[in-house]
Amino acid sequence: MRSIKVNLDKKSLSSYEICIGNSILDRMALLIAKNHKAGHHIVITDSNVGKLHGSKLLAALKDVGLNVDLIEFPAGEPAKNIHTVVDVAGRLLDLGADRNSLLIALGGGVVGDLVGFIASIFMRSIPYIQIPTTLLAQVDSSIGGKTAIDLPCGKNLLGTFYQPQAVFTDLSYLSSLTEEEFNNGLAEIIKYGIIDDAKMFRLLEDNMEPEKIKDPVLLLKLVELCCRIKKSIVEIDEKEQGLRRILNYGHTLGHALEAQSAFALSHGEAVALGMIAAARISENSGYLESGSRERIERLIRKAGLPCRIPEYLATGGIISRLKMDKKKDGDIIHFILLKKIGMPFVNGGIDEKIITPVIEGMR
Ligand code: GLY
What is the pTM of this model? Predict the structure, then answer.
């Protein structure tokens, strides 16, 4: 099992380990019992993940002597809202949860974001652990302490920064993912190559064929590389005051597309489109050479992710969503642009006149 330490805030209290391995359920349970003691461990998951992995995790935690319960809520992005928070909080109280309890988020991005949010506010905060089961959550959302729920007008508009006590990443969970779920994670992996590591981008170009990219040795290497990139960014800028913004490459337009499609587009599909748009804006603004933009588009296509914005998403609606982005400054919409692959920067504001033709050009 590999272990990566996330050192935060120069105080050991908010630092934590990301443990990565293949089929690590029993070791994970032992480590939780040894290092994350609590009066009551409560696993929170969604209806899909609960069915697949809930009882095995519960049994492993019981085997090491823990007092464990499980709460399930309906799967899917529409459940990531305040009603689910209130419902889960009520069920926590029914189970007798108190400030000596510890929550365990078992699932993908929705579960991790929602459970992290509940942990950050339940009884003015209780500890939690992330056990990400999707590729997207393993390489991105489980690390760095961003928690959130959606509001009707936009994604992740209520949230906190609240770090987990530990992240346990078991690659064996990936074998239960659908093709679409796996490709969602590939979008975030491609993002890390684009923003931080030109060598990793080349590795992806050489291995994006379905039979190669799922090789367990390569996957372990990629997940570890992404976790190391993310942790080093989060260590410098935990609360997204500056550097951490580069992790949002492709997400500004991505979140707008995702919300405008009422989540018919998955997060990975929307981010893939957002990454292409950001590369095109970079090229049109004279920052990025066309060869690099073409490589980005080719890799995204090879990963089975979309390159065209669906016609049913009207440009005006997408622009209105962009104006609601929580990362905007007044009327300025910040985009993460590229000087080259591996060299991103935060642009001070992109005019609607530049964004509109890029959206239209991707029909
Ligand atoms: N997913 C972007 C971040 O954690 O900052």
Answer: 0.95
